[in-house]
Amino acid sequence: MTNEIIFKYNCSYRGRWGEVETTNVTVLADFSDMTKWPYQIKVEERVEESLDEEDDSESVTFHKISKNLFDNIKSTIARHTELTALPEEIDYVMVMDGGSEYFEFICPAFKKVIYGSSLLSIGYHELEENPNSQKHCAVLRRAYEEIKKLVDAEQPDIL
Questions:
Q1: Cα separation of 80 and 115, whole Å?
Q2: pLDDT tens across 135-159, in order?
Q3: Phi, psi (5° rounding) for residue 104?
C-alpha cells in the first residue's frame, strides 16, 4: 500500500479584527504507521492574531474515515473530468472580501489545482460581469459539493 492524497482544500481570510484565519483540509491514506488507521481527513487551523506570534493559535485534527468513503471521494473526483478544462486561477474584479481558496483534486486519471478568491462563497454568486468565471466556479462548486456531501454523511462539519 502506498501513501496517497486525493483532495486538498485551503481557505484563508481576514477575520473581523484583522486576524488571518487559515484552514487546510486534506483527504489522505497514510500507511507509514501500521498501528494507525490509514484513511483520514487532516484538518489544520491557524489564526494569526497579530505580529506577535504568542497570540497565534494552531491546531491539527485527524478524523478517521472509512475506506469506502476514501474510495467514493476518489471516484467522484475521477467522474468530474470537466475540472481538467478549468483554468488554474479563477479571477474576477467585483469580490473584495479578502478570502482566498485553493483546491487540489487528485485521481489516477488527472491532478488539477485551482485557486482564486471566494470561489465557494460570495464570488460564486456575484460573477455576472464575467460569465466564464461564473461558469468555472459553478463547475468547481458542483465537484466540491458532491465531495462535501459524501464527507458530511460520515463525518459532519469538516468541510
A1: 17
A2: 888 899 999 999 999 999 998 988 8
A3: -135, 120
The segments of the chain whose pLDDT lies below 50 read 93, 123
Answer whether 91's CB lies under 8 Å from 153's CB.
Answer: no
> Which residues make Cβ contacts (< 8 Å) with residue 42, sequence separation at least 6?
24, 25, 26, 28, 60, 61, 62, 63
At 44, list the grid cell: 489544520
Helix (H) or strand (E) holding 39: strand 39-48
Q: What is the pLDDT of residue 102?
A: 95
- Whether residue 55 contacts residue 46, with contact meaning beta carbons closer than 8 Å, is answered with no
Cell of 50: 497579530
- The residue behind cell 497514510 is 30
Q: For residue 72, what is the enclosing H or E element?
A: helix 67-79
The CB-based long-range contact list for 39-42 (8 Å cut-off, 24+ gap) reads: 39/64, 39/65, 39/66, 39/67, 39/69, 39/70, 40/64, 40/65, 41/65, 41/151, 41/155, 41/158
d(C-alpha 156, C-alpha 80), whole Å: 23
Q: How many CB atoms lie within 10 A of CB 41?
A: 22
